[in-house]
Amino acid sequence: MSQLVSLPSRLTEVGLRPETRTGGPELSVVVPTFREAGNVAALVEKLDAALQGCAWEVVFVDDDSPDGTADVVKEIALSDSRVRCLRRVSRRGLAGACIEGILSSSAPYVAVMDADLQHDETVLPRMLSTLKSGDSDLVVGTRYAHGGSADAFSKTRGAASRLATWLSRTLTGVKLSDPMSGFFMIRREAFDPLAASLFPQGFKILLDIVITAKGTLRIAEEPYVFGARLHGESKLDTRVAMDFLGLLLAKLSGGAVTPRFLSFILVGTLGLGVHLAALDAALTSGLSFTPAYVIGALVAMTSNFLFNNALTYRDKRIKGLGMITGLLGFYLVSAVGLLTGVGTASWLYAYQPVWWLAGFAGAVMGAVWNYSMSTLFVWRVK
Q: What is the SS3 assignment for 185-218?
C-alpha cells in the first residue's frame, strides 16, 4: 500500500530545503487575452515600471488568438522569465481564462487585469500593500468611488455599465461600488476554496467570486481612472450581455439555471419566431399545413443550431465539415425532444386538463431534453 509523502520530505528528495524556497513570485498578474497582440509588449513594460521592488510575474492566458497574441507573449518570454503564456485551445471565455490563470500560479497574491491598457497598473502596488496588511482578502479596482473615473466610456457603454452595476447590486445584494470591475487582486488562499464553484463561462469573474463567497471575504476598494483603448477592439457585445444575465440568474437560482442553459432557452425562443415566420411563408406559397409545418420546423431547427453554435456553445464551436454531422445530430436531438415534450404534455393533460399547464410542462421537458442531449452529443461539453 502506497504512503503519502509530506511536502518537506519530497523537497528533500529533490535536493531542496523547505526553508530555502524563496525564489518564486510574490504576485502573479493574470491577463486574459484574445486578439491583443498589439498591447502585450506595452503592458509588460508598464508592469515592469509599476512593480519595481516586487517579485512578480505576468501570466497571459490566450484563447488561441488568430492575430498571434500567444506568439508575441512567447517571444517576450524568451528574454524575460517573468512572462508566461498559457494558451487555451478549443476553449473560450474570460472567466474560464482567469480561473485557469490563477490556478496556474504559485504566488500568494494574484491580480486580474485586462490586456487593453485601460486598467491602471500603477494601482497594483497599493492593492498588494492592502492585502499584505492582513485586513483584506480581496481588493477591487473601482471606477465609481471617489478618485475613480469612467469618463473614457462612450455614452452607450457608460449607460450599459451603470445598468449592469445597478442590476447586480439590486438582485444579489453585493455592496461593491463597481461589481462589474475586471480589475482586482485576491489572496490565493481565499480564491482556491471558491474555484470549483465558479462559472467558467462569461465575463464577470469578480461578481461570481463575491457572490460565491457569501460574505466571507474581507473586501477593500481602490479607485482608479479607466483609460482609453489604444489597440484592438472591445469584446463587449450581445454575447457578453447574455453571459452577464445568465450569471445573475444562475446565482439567484443556486446554480439550477446555468448561463449556458439560459442562452439555449433564449435561442429557442428566437427559434419559435423563426418557425412561425417560415410556416406563414410556406402556407402563403400554397403548401398545405403539414408540409408547411415540417418546413417551418426544419428552418427553425437550422437557425437554432447556427445560433447555438455561435453563442451558447461558442467555446465548443463546430467548424468545417463537422457542421454537417453536428446539424444532423441537432435535428435528431430536437425531433426526440419534440416527442418527449408531446408525451409529457399529453400525460399531464390526461390527469389535469389545463391546456396551458400541460403545454408549458411539455415545452420545459422538451427544452431540458434538447439542452442535455445537445450538450452531451452535439457539442460534447465536459
A: EEEHHHHHHHHHHCCCCCCCHHHHHHHHHCCCCC
Q: What is the rounded CA–CA span in Å between residue 278 and residue 273?
A: 9
Tens of pLDDT, residue by residue over 336-369, are: 988 887 788 788 888 888 877 877 787 788 888 9
Q: CA-CA distance, 180 to 249, in Å (whole number)?
A: 16
184: nearest Cα among 230, 267, 124, 245: 124
Q: How many CB atoms lie within 10 A of CB 171?
A: 13
C-alpha–C-alpha distance, residues 39 and 93, integer Å: 19
CB-count exposure of residue 44 (10 Å: 0-12, 13-18, 19+)? buried
Backbone dihedral angles phi then psi of residue 187, each to the nearest 5 degrees: -70, 135
CA distance 12 to 7: 9
Rounded to whole angstroms, the maximal C-alpha distance in the chain is: 84
Q: Which residue has the higher pLDDT, 235 or 351?
A: 351
Give the whole-angstrom CA distance, residue 379 versus residue 95: 20
Burial of 62 (0-12, 13-18, 19+ CB in 10 A): buried
Helices (H) and strands (E) in the chain, counts: 13, 7
- Tell me the H-state helices in 138-187: 155-172
Evaluate whether 299 touches 274 at the Cβ level (below 8 Å): yes
Question: 16: which 3 cell numbers?
Answer: 531542496
Q: How many CB atoms lie within 10 A of CB 276?
A: 12
Place 10 in a pLDDT band, splitting at 50, 70 and 90. Answer: very low
C-alpha cell of residue 28: 502573479
How is residue 107 annotated by DSSP?
-
